[in-house]
């Protein structure tokens, strides 16, 4: 993401040299305290969230321990709960979504930022922002009415016919399942990737392009070999923003994934994801262990997001060190 | 009656002074009777402008949870509270929680079999077999035997069930538990279970959508939902061995059979009810009211509403495709009103 550190004129060393009282009177100190509190609230909310999830899931944590992550039984009647199929479903659908959305999204961003006339680019940007603002339940309906029948009638039979020897494309074509969820998620996250990546690409300094062109590079060479690598960490940022949305997406996924907690190598199989099962079952979950197991799933999702975000940070740092990146942009 | 109304009016008078205007009662729970309840609360509010009843249809489990926590004045559920839940309530509030049946509904099997136009008959064993994953083909003798004269395909059955917890699932699994020992021991009855086979659809509309879109599939939805959306559904064999198509009459017949043996706490399951006309996958839906309400105005208003619901309120049921309560049950409930103190 385009994080920019802005320095406010008048703040800084000068502000420090005045007395506390005069700063208080001018409003500087109040502004500093106020904004500090706002910033601190982010940390506070995160801590509170983890604390609540941790407290709320005491029962299953004691009863199941780490086997919660390993078992794949989810049986509310006999109080047996395991998170594995949901973790699997979340990871598989998100990975599929990225696999589809990243090439499309980055490609579109390159066109909009580098090749398209500015007016076309701005008009399309308007539509992309519109797409990003559509509620996910609408995407879910789109999934049910368009993607699912298309999958069942056309795409999945074709996949089975030509690639059926792979374990990825075996089993009956329900239309619902991992693949469909991945496709719907991809549709949902593409606007994010395009929008952010386009901004990043546009912010690459003009002289970078001019230097490349002056050295005899073609338009595409300057784009692909200079501009895109320069913006690489920013593009990674957009991808991870999209991943975060895919991981936590609830309504659209629950409408098309089939809601069956199974682990299957086949992408055509129905499955379930963490966010989807929480949304489905929380409101009518009866019994402490059941409710708390769902809360523990929330904790697992938090952990998953945390780990993936951490990896994203590391990746951005590593790529920035190679002399590219947003640091200068 | 006049006296009760008088007392209520006095109570309301006091309350209205205190609450600056009107008395507001909140409830939460089952989604299945929500259209009925919102109609009732609306009509009742028009007749008694000082009483306003707010209802949130958050699901049966949520209704039980909220009434136990004391965050609402009454709860509502499609499956009666079990003994553990009753005990939890008793321990927490020092009084019992009462069940009041309000209306009845039914759950129907719906299917999508291209080329089959006749209304299919399902024996209870066939339904249990299909949902256990033991009956896997449409031309299985268990299905074909009850449908002589209809040619059934040799295709795999695609089973669809509710993805989220729901009262509909409770009624469905309650029925399957009664007719199949294997279902009872392996799966059991609950608002959400570990399904041996099948795809999960989100809500009645999710199940319907999946069944409509998937040839050779079978699912289950509420009768009201099937009726209002013109979805074809099958006949189910009842305890007397007769195949019955779900209808309000069939549901009331099931309730009438159970009405004679109605326990004092009204917690009764009427699935697989006796009687030739009884539709076997029927159920009451209940309001959950604490036996002790310390706020006199609220108590009187709730009691007044309940007696209205049992009398005039019942007349609105059929128009909304709910089956009304049998007379015996109404009489019994009127007596039970005295338990609210």
Supply the key terms.
heterodimer, A: 329 residues, mainly alpha, MetI-like fold, B: 341 residues, alpha/beta, D-Maltodextrin-Binding Protein, domain 2, 2 domains, eight-stranded mixed β-sheet, three-stranded mixed β-sheet, 11 strands, elongated
CATH topology of the largest domain in chain A: MetI-like fold
Described by its quaternary structure, the protein is: heterodimer
The number of helical segments of chain A is: 15
CATH class of the largest domain in chain B: Alpha Beta
Mean pLDDT of chain B: 88
Assign a percent range to the helix content of chain B.
Answer: 40-55%
Q: Quickly name the level 1 CATH class of the largest domain in chain A.
A: Mainly Alpha
Describe this structure in words.
The complex is a heterodimer of chains A (329) and B (341). Chain A is mostly helical and 329 residues long. Chain A has 15 helices and two strands. Chain A is 72% helix and 1% strand. The longest helix of chain A has 34 residues, at 288-321. Chain B has 341 residues and is α/β, with parallel strands linked by helices. Chain B has two domains: 25-104 and 283-339, D-Maltodextrin-Binding Protein, domain 2 (3-Layer(aba) Sandwich); 111-225, D-Maltodextrin-Binding Protein, domain 2, CATH 3.40.190. Chain B has an eight-stranded mixed β-sheet with strand order 2-1-3-11-4-8-6-7. A three-stranded mixed β-sheet of chain B has the order 5-9-10. The longest helix of chain B has 17 residues, at 2-18. The model of chain B is unreliable at 13-20 (pLDDT under 50).
List the helices and strands and how they pair.
The complex is a heterodimer of chains A (329) and B (341).
Chain A: H1 13-17, H2 20-26, H3 28-56, H4 58-64, H5 67-70, E1 74-75, E2 80-81, H6 84-115, H7 118-132, H8 136-163, H9 178-202, H10 206-214, H11 219-230, H12 232-248, H13 251-256, H14 274-281, H15 288-321
Antiparallel strand pairs in A: 1-2
Chain B: H1 2-18, E1 23-29, H2 34-47, E2 51-56, H3 60-69, E3 74-77, H4 83-93, E4 97-112, E5 121-122, H5 124-132, H6 141-144, E6 158-162, H7 167-179, H8 181-186, E7 199-201, H9 203-213, E8 217-222, H10 223-228, E9 235-237, E10 243-244, H11 248-259, E11 282-290, H12 296-310, H13 327-336
Parallel strand pairs in B: 1-2, 1-3, 5-9, 6-7, 6-8
Antiparallel strand pairs in B: 3-11, 4-8, 4-11, 9-10
Helix pairs in contact in B: 1-12, 3-4, 5-7
């Amino acid at each position: 993401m385009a994080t920019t550190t802005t320095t406010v004129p008048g703040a800084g060393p000068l502000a420090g040299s005045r007395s506390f009282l005069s700063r208080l009177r001018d409003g500087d100190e109040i502004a500093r305290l106020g904004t500090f509190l706002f910033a601190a609230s982010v940390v506070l909310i995160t801590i509170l969230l983890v604390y609540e999830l941790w407290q709320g899931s005491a029962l299953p944590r004691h009863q199941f321990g780490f086997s919660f992550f390993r078992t794949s039984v989810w049986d509310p009647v006999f109080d047996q709960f395991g998170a594995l199929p949901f973790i699997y479903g979340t990871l598989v659908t998100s990975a599929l979504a990225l696999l589809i959305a990243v090439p499309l999204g980055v490609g579109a961003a390159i066109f909009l930022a580098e090749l398209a006339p500015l007016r076309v680019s701005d008009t399309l940007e308007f539509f992309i922002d519109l797409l990003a603002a559509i509620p996910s339940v609408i995407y879910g309906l789109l999934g049910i009415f368009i993607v699912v029948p298309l999958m069942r009638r056309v795409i999945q039979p074709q996949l089975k016919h030509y690639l059926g020897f792979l374990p990825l494309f075996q089993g009956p074509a329900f239309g619902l399942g991992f693949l469909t969820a991945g496709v719907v998620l991809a549709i949902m996250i593409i606007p994010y990737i395009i929008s952010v990546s386009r901004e990043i690409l546009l912010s690459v300094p003009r002289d970078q392009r001019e230097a490349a062109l002056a050295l005899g590079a073609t338009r595409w060479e300057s784009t692909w070999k200079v501009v895109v690598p320069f913006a690489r960490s920013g593009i990674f940022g957009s991808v991870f923003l999209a991943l975060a949305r895919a991981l936590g997406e609830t309504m659209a996924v629950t409408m098309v994934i089939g809601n069956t907690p199974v682990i299957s190598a086949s992408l055509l199989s129905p499955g379930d994801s963490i966010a989807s099962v929480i949304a489905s079952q929380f409101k009518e979950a009866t019994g402490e262990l059941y409710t708390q197991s769902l809360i523990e799933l929330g904790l697992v999702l938090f952990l998953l997001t945390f780990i993936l975000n951490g990896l994203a940070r590391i990746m951005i740092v590593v790529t920035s060190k190679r002399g590219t990146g947003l640091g200068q942009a | 009656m006049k006296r009760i109304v008088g007392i209520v009016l006095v109570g309301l008078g006091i309350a209205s002074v205190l609450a600056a205007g009107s008395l507001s009662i909140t409830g939460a729970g089952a989604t299945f009777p929500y259209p009925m309840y919102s109609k009732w609360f609306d009509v009742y509010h028009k007749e008694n402008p000082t009483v306003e009843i707010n209802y949130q249809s958050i699901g049966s489990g949520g209704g039980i949870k909220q009434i136990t926590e004391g965050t609402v004045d009454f709860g509502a559920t499609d499956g009666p509270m079990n003994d553990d839940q009753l005990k939890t309530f008793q321990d927490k509030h020092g009084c019992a929680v009462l069940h009041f049946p309000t209306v009845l509904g039914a759950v129907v099997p719906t299917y999508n079999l291209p080329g089959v136009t006749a209304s299919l008959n399902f024996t209870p064993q066939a339904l249990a077999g299909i949902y256990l994953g033991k009956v896997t083909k449409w031309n299985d003798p268990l299905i074909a035997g009850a449908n002589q004269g209809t040619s059934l395909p040799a295709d795999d059955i695609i089973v669809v069930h509710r993805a989220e917890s729901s009262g509909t699932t409770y009624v469905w699994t309650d029925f399957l538990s009664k007719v199949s020992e294997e279902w009872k021991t392996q799966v059991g009855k609950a608002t959400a279970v570990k399904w041996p086979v099948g795809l999960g659809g989100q809500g009645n509309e999710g199940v319907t959508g999946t069944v409509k879109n998937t040839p050779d599939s079978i699912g289950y939805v509420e009768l009201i939902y099937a009726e209002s959306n013109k979805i074809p559904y099958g006949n189910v064999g009842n305890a007397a061995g007769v195949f019955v198509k779900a209808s309000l009459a069939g549901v009331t017949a099931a309730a009438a059979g159970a009405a004679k043996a109605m326990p004092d706490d009204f917690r009764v399951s009427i699935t697989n009810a006796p009687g030739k006309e009884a539709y076997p996958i029927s159920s009451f839906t209940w309001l959950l009211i604490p036996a002790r309400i310390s706020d006199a105005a609220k108590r009187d208003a709730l009691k007044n509403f309940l007696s209205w619901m049992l009398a005039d309120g019942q007349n609105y049921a059929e128009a909304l495709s709910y089956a009304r309560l049998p007379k015996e049950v109404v009489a019994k409930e009127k007596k039970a009103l005295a338990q609210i103190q």
